[in-house]
Amino acid sequence: MTAAQALLLDVGVVLFKSAWECADDFEDARGLARGTIPGRGPLNPDIPDPGWARYQADEITERDYWVAYARAAVDNGVDISGFDGFMQAIFREPGVESIRPEALALMAECTAAGRALGILSNELMSFQGRDWVEAQDWYADFAVVIDASELGVRKPDPRPYEAALEALQLPADQVVFIDDNPTYVEAGRATGMRSIWLDVLDPGAAFEAAAVELGLR
Question: Is the entire prediction scored with pTM above 0.85?
Fold first, then answer.
């Protein structure tokens, strides 16, 4: 199979680290007691996370889980004054490295090799705000940014994937798509994209697999 010509990334947990991975550093930066932000999802099963168990049981959606996660942090005393929400606060806190370094490294390789870069997210603008997103250094690296929340229909509906392909102007089999949600990965495969699941317990593996598909290994 020929090398793919574009890398399409989800944002939460893929381009950005998960809130679980940032939580300890955020608590330390704010001088908060460990566990003020309750739950670490799959990262630390010793810390109870009832919402994550409900999500895994398909009782709530991914968005429902993260909204409840943020609400619980605020209820426990996390001050988000000056921000529109907890997700903005945790990813913008000085001293918290929120961008996944493996993502930045692969992006740089893609740019050097002439591969296109795109984003396909459900919540990027609604969680972070377009003004802040467009001011980030990494934003200009992406030729295509599709936020499904602005389309009015979210992954795994096929329409956001189709919008990304149209914007990239590439056939589906020339696009490598990385997402941490298995359902969204399967939806990408259904469109014909080379879709790769990112396991938050081993994120580097997804980027290595993508590099192979892109002909960079």
Answer: yes
